[in-house]
Amino acid sequence: MRYIKKSDEPESFAAWKELANEDWKPSWKGFSKPQKTDVHNALLQEQGFICCYCGMRITKETSHIEHLKPRTTYPDLSLEYNNLLTSCQGESEEAPPEPVHCGHKKAKWYDEHLIVSPLEVNCTDFFEYNGDGEILPTEDLDKQYAAETTISRLGLNIPKLMAMRREAIDGVLLGIEELTDEEIQQLAQGYAQPDADGRYTPFCTAIAYIFNQYFVA
Q: Rg for the chain (alpha carbons), in Å?
């Protein structure tokens, strides 16, 4: 999980909501193209095309618009752009693909005291990673329970995600022995930034953590 800095909502989305009158109110049920497509694309861009929770690569086809605060519990926030993210596992009118994780697994759950939100500037401080691809709660006792709960509620340590993180970490560690300390540091810093197309490396937070923990002085 990495911090997501929200941008302004798409103009088309704002304009659509401003059409509200006595006879018509914008609603999630009536939210469709082109406004929904514009919002989905904007969310992908501001997240650097990685899932808001696990950090895997996502596209419009392999992701869904996620409500941080569930719309069933917080209906007034269903069209609030600052409550919208995009999570992996695409939109499905039926059951999401197995194994379920991230936004679909979180479903209607939300506890402001126990969820670690990617909209929190310090969200990365709640987690640690190891070379096996496992995400772990921090040793900070004040953050530990929220981290443990979030990992469990989002299914962030299911075998599928652990294997994907492990593969991503192993891939970037190949040939690292040939690099100087300065080059390793530059490489680690690079994973904190998107590429020229605005895309982050999948699982960049886990990769950066391993670099900083074990290779950067």
A: 18
* Residues 165/133, Cβ–Cβ less than 8 Å: yes
| Segment-wise mean pLDDT, segments of 10 residues, the chain, 217 residues | 97 98 96 97 98 98 97 97 97 80 97 97 97 96 98 98 97 83 84 93 94 76
Number of neighbours of residue 215 by Cβ within 10 angstroms = 15
Q: How far apart are the first and last CA of the chain?
A: 23
pTM of the model: 0.95
The candidate with the shortest Cα–Cα distance to 32, out of 97, 91, 72, is 91
- Classified as helix, coil or strand, 212 is helix
In our burial notation (b when 16+ CB lie closer than 10 A, e otherwise), range 31-46 reads beeebbebbbebbbeb
